[in-house]
Design a protein that fits this description.
The chain is mainly β. It has 1 helix and 24 strands.
């Protein structure tokens, strides 16, 4: 009976100790606001609530290294843990975790590291569809993030790819993106801006992926006058809207078929300053098989071809 009582008392002591350790050791630590970086370091100081020994540490997602006091820790004394976290590619709230195994404890001491990550520069810039008659709309000013007490400045930029140019502006605190000298209608913008960022005694590299596309000089909606699949005798009408650059808003328009296999009636009219509608109707039977010809639309001194498609069975 005495042995059972002693065992019960020991169990109560272990449970009490476990609860006390989890309650008194820090469960969270702030690393504050930091830039995105592969090597953000910090320190956590704590007071040992009782005699204890940390036997292992398991860094969780985002934590790349940890150093903790070795051997027996004495109750009431202050100790420190240093850690390293990888905040590269992160933005906003980021909470990595470290799990510590304590001798004699079944549960692990879980320490969460809480803070905010501020990217120095965005990793991507989507320009979308740029109107070819106004390439100045590409111009963007990308500021370098600044955290109080941790100044940064852009030392230089380089562009790999095509479609844009880049320069350092505002005394090294921003990058200006502008159209390349040879950028023109229908071009795709596929470029990477490589920035070298300097701090006190350190240097960082950041890249911005820039994507976009310049509108074609003439746009077709839909892309062709398709009469689909049907019989030779069918008579149908199709419309295609032609988008125009601004300088051709008042240019004379002529439309004529380049289709020897079928007779087509063509009408066109201005819909707006930057577009016209071409209406196409077949006035003879479609030839058997596949028809693939076109309508030449002459707009001033320039020309666009509307494909005419049909399949006859």
């Amino acid at each position: 009976m005495c042995n059972l009582t002693l065992k019960a008392a020991a169990l109560v002591a272990v449970l009490y100790t476990s609860w006390t350790y989890a309650d008194e050791l820090p469960l969270t630590a702030e690393y504050g606001t930091t830039y995105d970086s592969e090597g953000t370091t910090g320190e956590v100081r704590f007071v040992a609530p009782y005699d204890m020994e940390i036997v292992a540490a398991e860094p969780g997602c985002g934590c790349t290294g940890v150093e903790y006091p070795q051997g027996q820790l004495k109750a009431g004394e202050t100790y420190s843990i240093t850690y390293q976290i990888d905040t590269s590619g992160r933005a906003g709230t980021f909470v990595p975790r470290i799990d510590f195994s304590v001798a004699g404890q079944a549960d692990k001491w879980q320490l969460q590291l809480e803070g905010q990550v501020v990217p120095m520069l965005p990793s991507k810039l989507q320009l979308g569809l740029i109107q070819g008659d106004d390439l100045s709309s590409i111009i963007r000013r990308i500021p370098l993030a600044q955290i109080d007490g941790q100044p940064r400045h852009i030392r230089q930029v380089q562009v790999a790819g095509k479609g844009i140019a880049a320069s350092v502006v505002d005394g090294g605190t921003a990058i200006e993106i502008s159209p390349a000298a040879d950028l023109t209608w229908s071009d795709r913008i596929v470029a990477t801006v490589e920035a070298t960022i300097a701090a006190e005694g350190e240097e960082y590299s950041r890249s911005i992926q820039v994507r976009g596309r310049v509108s074609p000089r003439f746009s077709l909606e839909p892309k062709s006058a398709s009469f689909g699949v049907g019989t030779a005798q069918r008579r149908e009408t199709r419309q295609v809207r032609v988008g125009l650059p601004a300088e051709l808003a008042a240019a004379p328009v002529q439309a004529s078929p380049v289709c020897g296999e079928v007779e087509l009636d063509i009408e066109h009219q201005r819909e707006a300053a930057n577009s016209l509608v071409v209406q196409i109707r077949n006035t003879s039977d479609f030839p058997a098989g596949t028809l693939n010809c076109g309508i030449e639309v002459q707009i001033g001194a320039e020309q666009v071809v509307i494909p005419v498609l049909a399949l006859t069975r």
